[in-house]
Amino acid sequence: MTLHTQTPLVESRPMSLSSGRSIWLKLDALQPPGSFKIRGIGLACETHRERGARRFVSSSGGNAGLAVAYAGRVLAIPVTVVVPETTSERAKELLLRENAEIIVHGVSWQEANDFALSLLGASDAFLHPFDDPLLWQGHATIVDEVFRSGLKPDAIVLSVGGGGLLSGVAEGLRRNGWGDLPILAVETEGAASFHAAIEAGHPVELAGITSIATSLGAKRVCERAVYWSQEHPILSVVVSDQSALSACEAFLADHRVLVEPACGASLSLAYEKAPELDPFGTILIVACGGATATIDQIRQWSARYA
Ligand SMILES: *Cc1c(COP(=O)(O)O)cnc(C)c1O
């Protein structure tokens, strides 16, 4: 038994029609804690438990923290999540439902993270949201499942925050002998740290995050993501917040699943018939999910563009 579930792989009729090609979805929005993150974090938590960890510590008020809280509850290991004062009530509510201990500390993520690190004792395990080989190994199971299904897409579309999902999928492609299968790595304007990194040839720190897709809001991607950009065919694509939001609405109507704009960014390529899809007949989109947005929040953001 793993902490993540094997998710459905389905062809989207509406998205195939709107993009004029075959669009397949890996529905990781249906993971119990709401996003793909449980794949890698679940594996990391199980590994730390085997090594004797008695507590899991995270500094993420987003989907990574939720995955840690979920894993801790299922494995019966206490979880402490340190979040900054800016964390929404909804995020805290979701963490409390998983029985996590929440410590509110500092005005920014940096301060919360520093405090979380200062709490670590010998039997505590700290779970990073994207920069950890155990995470990539776990995220790679997305590709294992697609490989076993018998479907071989011509390209894979996924969203990039800190680059953990990208690094995991690239690893999964390599370990299944699909090292030639291109990845379209999607970010939103104002959170395009992978785009900046591949232009520079190394991770660079963005001055700030201005996108509403907060789950993509890592100011700097991990080194591993840049390594893969040199070892694997990866095309960086940057879309607007507005495109990501419209895709969330369309996806809810088409597939009855609410996802965050972080996921909408990837879905928007099919809905907007992005030219980057032109070379490919069959596309797999990782519907990475995300539990932190409500439909009211998505519509409030969308209203800014109306
Ligand atoms: C974390 C997350 C991402 C980005 O993943 P990284 O591993 O940080 O690149 C994308 N979408 C959702 C919903 C997420 O939770």
Structure, briefly:
The chain is an alpha/beta fold. It has 13 helices and ten strands.
Write a structural description:
Helix 2 crosses helix 3. The strands form two sheets. Strands 1-2-10-7-8-9 form a six-stranded mixed β-sheet. Strands 5-4-3-6 form a four-stranded parallel β-sheet. The mean pLDDT is 97. The chain is globular, with a radius of gyration of 18 Å. The chain has helices at residues 13-19, 37-50, 63-75, 89-97, 109-119, 133-139, 141-149, 164-175, 193-200, 223-231, 241-255, 261-271, 295-303, and strands spanning 9-11, 22-26, 55-58, 79-83, 101-104, 124-126, 155-159, 183-188, 234-239, 282-286. The chain is an alpha/beta fold and 306 residues long. It folds into two domains: 9-36 and 134-303, Rossmann fold, CATH 3.40.50.1100; 38-130, Rossmann fold (3-Layer(aba) Sandwich), CATH 3.40.50.1100. Bound molecules: pyridoxal-5'-phosphate. Pyridoxal-5'-phosphate binds at residues 35, 37, 63, 130, 159-166, 215-216, 218, 260, 262-263, 288-290.
